[in-house]
Amino acid sequence: MEPTGAKRKRQTYEPPTELGRYLHHPVQKEYVGYPDGSIWSKKSGAFIQGSLNGEYVLINLGDKNVYRHRFIFEIANQRVIQPLMHVDHINADKTDNSWTNLQELTSQAHAMKTSADNPKRGAKCGVTLGQKLVATHIGTGEKLSFNSQWHAARELGLHQSNIGKQLRGKLKRVGQYTFEVASAYMDQQRDLPGEQWEDVPKDLAVEYGFQPGIMKGIRISNLGRIQDKMGRRTFGLEVPSKFPGDCYMSTFVGSSVQGQGIISCNIASGEKKRFASQSQAAKELGLFQSNISLCLKGKLASTEGYTFEKDADYENDQADLPGEEWRKIPEDVGIAQGFSSKMLAGMQFSSAGRVRDKRGRRTFGTDLGSHKVVKVADGPLSKKARVHVLCTLAFHGPPPGKDHIVQHINGENSDNSRENLTWVHKTAPSDRRGTVKAVQKIDRESGAVLATYQSIMEAAEANNIAHRNQISDVIAGRKATAGGYGWQFAD
After folding, report:
1. Which long-range contacts (CB under 8 A, 24 or more apart) does 313-319 make?
2. How does 153-181 read in b/e, with b if 16+ C-beta sit within 10 Å?
3. Rounded Cα distance, 364 and 361, in Å
4. What DSSP string runs through 165-222?
5. pLDDT cut 70: percent of the chain above it
6. Which domain holds residue 360?
7. CA 269 and chain centroid, separation
8. Using the 8-state DSSP alphabet, how is residue 482 labeled?
9. 189-222 burial string, b = 16+ CB within 10 Å, else e?
């Protein structure tokens, strides 16, 4: 008779032998694999099928989800996959997970092979994600041009995934439109005569105020073009600015509201690395973002050889500032200003000029022209809204009339604090020129004053700083450097 309180041993089911030899997973010993790619669970006594996630199959191992082909590779080679390495299907058939069809490649080698395997497709190499499209209305024959699938989906109210499927021939149409790749786009992606490409030096990127890793994968050409992390090439996007010819590249480099700053630690080597968000960490390390989130919540000790913790600097940035007050924009006020009922739902705006998004992340916004913006969305529909307008609506209510605009009282467009914002008639004379102050350029190491300028505008032009808001952010303590220097108002 079994003793009272004794722990009952779970029953296990041995794998069938009629399929030939099999191997246990090097870590998850309760799973075994066969050369044809089959996986047997000794816990359930059945073969694991998994579910389709995009082009690959996910399997659930109880505490986490993993890609089936990666798990099979580890069984076949009796070791875990090396950090930052990809598993490739040699014959390009993603349904063939047999042991002999899987190989381990670096990210760059995998991208090159995928491009060679799919010469007319390029989906995995980033071609379809940023390619210029032509949409044709089925009823009227009207043609519309868009810079990307995302722009087309936003303007036409369609799902971007369906546009991608139609371009790949899986759908005949999307709504009332058909899509095709603009022929001029492919010509623009080729090397220009005499064009040479170089990586952005990491130390130089940090010196100019970019977060570590954010410029990784970005390449610059000697002819003034930029190649983003997905291989797309561009001269930049023209935006309204007081600097003629400014190009705005934030679409490739960062988002309007950054994610949660985190630090990864490689268990084997002890190497630590900072990431601006869980999404960035998942992409660079080849992990599932959901598993990273579980690690941060304490539900997983590690994932694929990595542990994760929140970045202390990020936590400090997310704390309330002294005297900071948060308010919402009433739904009727937002609708009257052109926002849908869901775009501003869950968002709050502070007396210091910050925005708290629907997930609780806080930001001053990103520079667009001479103002700061954040992204607001309602499902597939989204747009960039100016932070100074949102904060004014929250703390000063709607405009007195349709001809009123927001004015920064001290003339600094980056200062979106409650006291610096007011509604004025668009024809009212501006007295902002009277608030212009001299600024000083400071050496970061010695603290010495290197130069004095009569205004922030003059300082930005003299030091080739695209947006004067970057200097204002340093003076206000929101950034450490602009153009590689510290900045302060002259006494």
Report:
1. 313/261, 314/260, 314/261, 314/262, 315/261, 317/261, 317/362, 318/360, 318/361, 318/362
2. bbebebebebbbebbeeeeeebeebbbeb
3. 11
4. HHHTTS-S-BTTEEEEE-HHHHHHTSPPTT--EEEPPHHHHHHTTPPTTTTTT-EEET
5. 80
6. 326-434
7. 27
8. B
9. beeeeeeeeeebeeeebbebbbbebbbebbbebe
Q: Residue 464 sits in a domain of what CATH number?
A: 1.10.10.10
Report whether 385 contacts 339 (CB < 8 A): yes
Whether residue 329 is predicted with pLDDT greater than 90 in this model: the reply is yes
CA distances in angstroms from 481 to 212, 276, 490, listed in the order given: 14, 18, 17
361 and 413 belong to one structural domain: yes
Rounded CA separation 461/384 (Å):
26
Residues 6+ apart with CB under 8 A from 461: 243
CA-wise closest residue to 259 among 171, 375, 339, 426:
375
Same domain (yes/no): 428, 440: no
Residue 201 backbone phi and psi in degrees, to 5: -60, 135
The residue whose two tokens read 């970005």 is 218
The token pair at 205 is 């990127």
Domain count, the chain: 5
Residue 459 forms part of a structural domain:
yes
∠ CA(366), CA(291), CA(354), 5° rounding?
Answer: 20
Q: Is residue 213 part of a domain?
A: no
Instruction: Enumerate residues 6+ apart whose C-beta is below 8 A from 390.
Output: 329, 344, 349, 355, 374
> In terms of residues, how long is the chain?
491
Amino acid symbol at 78? Q
Helix (H, G, I), strand (E, B) or coil at 432: helix
- The 3-state DSSP composition of the chain as helix, strand, coil percent (nearest 5) reads 25, 25, 50
pLDDT single digits (tens) 50-105: 877 767 888 888 767 888 999 999 999 999 988 778 898 888 888 888 898 899 88
Torsion of CA 63, 66, 68, 69, to 10 degrees: -140
Q: Considering the chain, what is the average pLDDT of its residues?
A: 79
165 and 150 in a single domain? The answer is yes
What's this model's pTM, rounded to 2 decimal places?
0.38
Dist. CA 260–CA 283, nearest whole Å: 15
Q: b vs e for 84-114, b when ≥16 Cβ sit within 10 Å of the residue's Cβ?
A: ebbbbbeeeebeebbbebbebbeeeebbebb
Q: What is the pLDDT of residues 160-171, one digit of tens each?
A: 888 888 988 888
Mean pLDDT across the stretch 405-414? 85
